[in-house]
Every structure is written in structure tokens, then in C-alpha cells.
Amino acid sequence: AKTQASLVGRIDALLSSSQSIDEDLMEELEEVLVTADFGMQTTMGLMQSLEERISAGEAADPQALRGLLKDEIRQRLRLEAAPLDLESSTPYVIMVVGVNGVGKTTTIGKLAHQFVSQGKTVLLGAGDTFRAAAAEQLTVWGERAGVEVIRQESGSDPAAVAFDAAKAAVARKADVLILDTAGRLHTKVNLMEELKKIRRVLDREIPGAPHETLLVVDATTGQNALVQARLFQEAVEVSGLALTKLDGTARGGMLVAIGNELGLPVRYVGIGEGMEDLRPFDPDLFVEALFEQQG
Amino acid sequence: MFDNLSEKLDSVFKKLRGHGVLSEDNIKQTMREVRLALLEADVNFRVVKEFVATVRERAVGQEVLKSLNPAQQVIKVVRDELGRLMGEGEENSLDLAARPPVAIMLCGLQGAGKTTSCAKLALQLRRQKRNPLLVPADIYRPAAIDQLKTLGKQLDIAVFDSQPDRDPVLICEEAQRYAELNGYDTLILDTAGRLHIDEQLMAELVRIKDSLQPREILLVADAMTGQDAVNVAETFNAQLEISGVILTKLDGDARGGAALSIRAVTGKPIKLVGMGEKLDALEVFHPDRMAQRILGMGDVLSLIEKA
Ligand SMILES: Nc1nc2c(ncn2[C@@H]2O[C@H](COP(=O)(O)OP(=O)(O)OP(=O)(O)O)[C@@H](O)[C@H]2O)c(=O)[nH]1
Ligand SMILES: Nc1nc2c(ncn2[C@@H]2O[C@H](COP(=O)(O)OP(=O)(O)OP(=O)(O)O)[C@@H](O)[C@H]2O)c(=O)[nH]1
Ligand SMILES: [Mg+2]
Ligand SMILES: [Mg+2]
Fold first, then answer.
1. Of all residues in chain B, what percent carry a pLDDT higher than 70?
2. Mean of the pLDDT values across residues A214-228?
3. Which site among A221, A224, A271 would you substitute to test the B interface, given the most B Cβ atoms closer than 10 Å to its Cβ?
4. Quick one: DSSP state of residue A248?
5. Nearest to A241 by CA among A230, A76, A158
6. DSSP calls for B242-261
7. Considering CB atoms only, which of A39, A132, A222 is closest to B225?
8. Closest Cα of chain B to A205: distance in Å?
9. Which of A60, A267, A289, B239 could form a disulfide with A240 if both were Cys (CB 3.0 to 4.6 A apart)?
10. Cα A211 to middle of ligand 3, angstroms
11. Rounded CA gap, B115 and A217, in Å?
12. C-beta of B252 in contact with ligand 1 (< 6 A)
């Protein structure tokens, strides 16, 4: 329990216990950022900006650092993550991608539920034909959300599922089609090619699709998240992120590097395994959570 | 910025090589770079701090300063200390020497790779002429039981027949009786993914442990995990006294600093590594290789030679 509470409350504790802005304080601040998975590059960039602003006389005391740090972090996050414009196309096609086990299928279940409660008709495509019982898992989520799942036998071509799902979405005049894909490491070239093929099939059936390519990133991931985002973006033009598992003790600091370097907006955060546990990403809350006392 | 630690250390070592005698300043500079590099590899902050302190202490010692080749010695201290931290030379094979049926429990965060690792482990044990029974004790995740059953079918390995409306502790207990009656010598328990801060679900694991007394309790951890790895490992170990770790998804390009962190905070050996989604992709863990991977420096040994 000691370690859980330590991180999040630390900035606050640090700032209020310090008499002056000195080397020790700056060092401890750096620790807090590193422990939240900001990564060394982002952390060092943040610290440098802070020091410049301190030299410029912007922070008279430790308390004022808080505002400066928030400001710097927010500048690096893309604040203007516009909500998905579901009206821009019918059907509006969302393709969900990411490495293994991050929470793609679960996020799709939550999204389907959310769209249904907004009055949309939703169709799911079980594009993970590889992992054992992946389609069954998505089917359970489909039942929970009350939406239909288009699936084929395990082991079949995921592009064929995408084709079927696109056809069905058009035929049924669905508002939204969400396509699940198998988890894959960004380093596996053939599997990344497979994703490109799926995209081409979608685009052929529904010109402009997928309208959103959502990369799911696990908040417990460290530096590798940035590489994941870069390679998925290169391969399949990722247009937004969902950050899952923020209900744990990881802070998801890699988001800041991803936002800063790749300009990708964060659209959703996952905060649990239930159907309701999906929220729009709120940069203010995200930054605030770094300062809050937890537990 | 340097791309990886290999380059980074290379340049540091080059600087060191230029000096006949190591000053405290040299060491300080070196340790700064080592620290940065380890942090970039996701090694936990606290672990890095300790590591750097230990190495510095040893390096600053007189024998180094007086020695003929100080750079060589510092590099060796870094390498040796890393190897030691990774568990070099320690026993890390599974211990199943108990009266059958012997239980192995896998636990960990959501999506870490528990179910897949259960199946991989079953295959490996069967190849060692054991007769394993897979036990699906995850009643929460949609289709988790189906997943394990499907994997069992692929391998032609028996899966205990459980239902999601049963208590996981009861499922495990029934499976144990079933194994006794049907000649299975090893139970592999697939538990649901859970957060280490989820008290209720952590208590469930403790109940399973108390009831079945698993010979091995393996924490399944994702090699891509960042700084949080220590919190997770510390809590699982504190509540369950784990016997070892399975590190998954090492087939990617993550440096895997979590391995060092977990090892350092729990003192428990990493026993196996997951090298892919295929069911034969489970390998024994090599501490020296892992140390090199974390440092991104296959060539460090050659640097020592050159130094
Ligand atoms: N605590 C928590 N768990 C989550 C969250 N999102 C997903 N999970 C869990 O993470 C695990 C993996 O989720 P999946 O949706 O199967 O992940 P996936 O990316 O589809 O996995 P693959 O298809 O195998 O690559 C499951 O146990 C989910 O319940 C979240 O926001 N919080
Ligand atoms: N590349 C790679 N993928 C792996 C490895 N081990 C597991 N996976 C994948 O990771 C994902 C999650 O694996 P699971 O076995 O379902 O993980 P879990 O821990 O049982 O997940 P929950 O039960 O939801 O907590 C799946 O897509 C697996 O195929 C590995 O060593 N390498
Ligand atoms: Mg999935
Ligand atoms: Mg599982």
C-alpha cells in the first residue's frame, strides 16, 4: 500500500514541504515524472522548460512550480481531441488495433454500449480470427451491448471478415461498424501487412473507411508504447488513441510523449472491466491525477 | 539522444578508455549515463538508484583507482552487478517435486498472458512426460473458459470442465479431486487477470493458495511493463509469496527493464519467458541474455575485452 499512494501524492507533498526551489526539489520532481512513465526524453524536456521558466522568474516558490508543470505537460498533450464525428459517414467505420492483451476487444464492447445508448445502431466485426475464443469473447460483449456480431470460423482470413462486416453494415444501414483485430506486436512485419490489407478491403467496400483507426495502449506499458504508436501509425494511419487500465496504479505518462511526438489525440480512457468503464479523455483530469493524493 | 544503451555505453566507455586513471568525476559521469540508459529501458527508478549506488561504491573504491586498468574494472562492475541482479548462476527451474497432483498457479494483471502461458506450460510438461490438467478458474473475463478449452483442444491436453457461475476456489478444489481420481499429476490453474490493488480479487487468490497449496505460484508479467512493474510485483509477492515469474511478450522489441525491477524487488527468479503467441513459444530464462538485452549491449563483453 505504501507504494501505491507514494507516486500520485508525491508532487503535492513535495511542493508543500519544500522551502525553496533547489536542486533537491528539482531532482525529486524528475523522479516523480520518471516513475509515472513519462520517459527520460520527455522528463528531461519538461525539466529543462521548467528550469528556463524558473530562471525567467516565473516561479517564486515551490508551489508555483505546480502550475508551470501542468502547463508544460498540457502543451505537450493534444488538447483538441475532437469527438468522433459519427455523422460524417454511414456507416462510420472504426478499426481497432494494438499489441496483444491491451484491451481492444473490451474497449469495443464498451464503445458499442456507449453508441447504442446514444441511439446508434452498431455492428461489430470479429476480425480476430487467430486468438483462441476471441470471437466468443466479442460475442459476449455484443450480447451485453445488444448488438450483432459478424464472425467467421476461427482461423479464417480476417480480411474476409472485414469484407463481410462492411457488406452487412451497408445492407443493414448500421450507423457504426467497429472492427476488432487480433493483437499483434508492431515488430511483426507480416502481421502489420495483414492490417493494411484489412484497411484496403474496408476502403473498397465503404470508400473512406476506416474513418477512425483507434490504437489501444495499455497504461502499464513503459517506453515501448511510443514505439508501438509510431509503428502502428506508419502502417495503418492511426487517428486516435484509447488508453486502458488507468484504474490501476500506472499513470500512463507515455501518453505525453506520444502526443508530443506523433500528434495523436487521446480519445478514450478505460478505467475498469465493466461496460460503463470508458470515459472520454480529459487532459485536465489526466494532469490533475498526477498531483492528486491517492488512496 | 542516443538510440540505445549500447551506443550510449559505447561512448561512455570510449571516454573512460582515454583516461589512465579514473577520477571520481569520471565515475560520476559514467554512472549518470548508465542511470539514464537503465531508466530508458524501463528499469524502475528505485532499482536504478540502488544499482548505481552499488556500482559507484565499488568503483570508487581504492583498488579501482590504483589499478592498472580502471576503465576495464568499472565496466566489469556494471556488468557483474547487473548479472547478479538478474539472478545469474541461480537455480530457476520449476520445482514440482511433491506428491501428485502438484498444483501450479498462474496469476497477474489483466492481459499479461496467463491463459496462453498455462497452455504453453502444459505442453512443455507433457513433453517432460507429465500428465497435466488445465484448470480454468477465470469466471470473470468473457469467454475465458472457452479460451482455455480451445487451447487444450489444440494441444490435446485435458481441461477441467468448469462454469462461470462457480466459485473459482471451488473449481480448483474440484479439479484437484478430479485429478486425483483420474491420474493427472499436475494441475495448472488459470486465474483471472486482476489489479494488485483489487483487495477482493487478491483475497480470492489467497484462498486458492491456502486450499491447494500450489508448489509453484508464478506471476505472469508483460515484458513491456513500465515503472509500475515494481508495485505489481511487490503486492503480488507480499500477498501470495510467489515462487517465480513468467515474463511474456519478449518476442517484441521492448528492452524489458521490468525484468530487472521485478527480480530486484521480489528476489524471486524469472523462470520462463514467452517468446510468441504460438504454444511452443515458452523458453527458459537466461539472466545474462536479459541483462544484455536491458542494456541493449550484446557487445559489452567485447568492450570489456577491448578496454
Ligand atoms: N482493469 C482494467 N482491465 C481492462 C481494461 N480494459 C481491458 N481490461 C482487461 O484486460 C484484459 C485484456 O482485454 P482484451 O479486451 O481481451 O484485450 P485485447 O487487446 O483484445 O487482447 P488480444 O485480442 O488478446 O490482443 C481483459 O481481462 C480485460 O478485462 C481496463 O480499462 N481496466
Ligand atoms: N507476442 C506474444 N503474445 C503473447 C505472449 N503471451 C501471450 N500473448 C498474447 O497476449 C494476449 C493476452 O494473452 P492471454 O493469455 O489471454 O492473457 P491473460 O493474462 O490470460 O489475460 P486475462 O485473462 O484477460 O487477464 C493474447 O493475444 C496472447 O496471444 C507472448 O509471449 N508473445
Ligand atoms: Mg482481443
Ligand atoms: Mg486469461
1. 84
2. 97
3. A224
4. S
5. A230
6. --EEEEE-TTSS---HHHHH
7. A222
8. 31
9. A267
10. 20
11. 20
12. no
Q: Do A250 and B151 touch (CB under 8 A)?
A: no
pLDDT at A8 > cutoff 60: no
More confident residue, A126 or B72: A126
By percentage, how much of chain A surpasses pLDDT 90?
A: 74
Angle at Cα A285 formed by Cα A280 and Cα A291, nearest 5°?
Answer: 155
Predicted complex ipTM:
0.94
Burial status of residue B260 (CB atoms within 10 A of its CB: 0-12, 13-18, 19 or more)? buried
- Of the pLDDT bands very low, low, confident and very high (cuts 50, 70, 90), residue A15 is confident
Helical segments of chain B, H only:
5-17, 24-40, 45-60, 62-66, 70-86, 114-127, 144-155, 168-182, 199-212, 229-240, 257-266, 287-295, 300-306
Average pLDDT (B40-67) is 80
Q: Is B78 in the pocket of ligand 2 (CB under 6 A)?
A: no
Which amino acid residue places its CA nearest to atom 13 of ligand 2? Answer: B113
All residues of chain B having their beta carbon less than 8 Å from the beta carbon of residue A126 are none
What kind and span of H or E run contains B270? strand B270-274
Smallest Cα distance from A29 to chain B, Å: 12
Q: Which residues 6+ apart lie within 8 Å of A285 measured at CB?
A: none
**Interface probe with B: pick from A220, A227, A255, A273, most Cβ of B within 10 Å:** A220
Other C-beta atoms lying within 10 Å of the C-beta of residue A284 = 11
Q: Pick the ligand that lies closest to the CA of residue B113.
A: 2
Q: How far apart are the CA of B257 and the centre of ligand 3, in A?
A: 26
Q: What is the DSSP letter of A17?
A: H
Tell me, in angstroms, the distance from the centre of ligand 3 to residue A254's CA. 22
Report the number of secondary-structure helices (H) and strands (E) in chain A. 11, 8
* Residue in A41, A141, A224 closest to B1 by CB: A41
Nearest ligand 2 atom to alpha carbon B138: 23
Return the pLDDT at B20.
Answer: 58
CB contact set of B85 (below 8 Å; sequence gap of 6+) = B47, B51, B260, B263, B264, B291
Across residues A233-242, what is the average pLDDT?
A: 97
Cα A160 to the chain's mean position, in Å?
27
Contact A135, A149 (CB under 8 A): yes
Q: B208: left (phi > 0), else alpha (psi -120 to 50), else beta?
A: alpha
Lowest mean pLDDT among A41-50, B13-22, B270-279, B287-296: B13-22
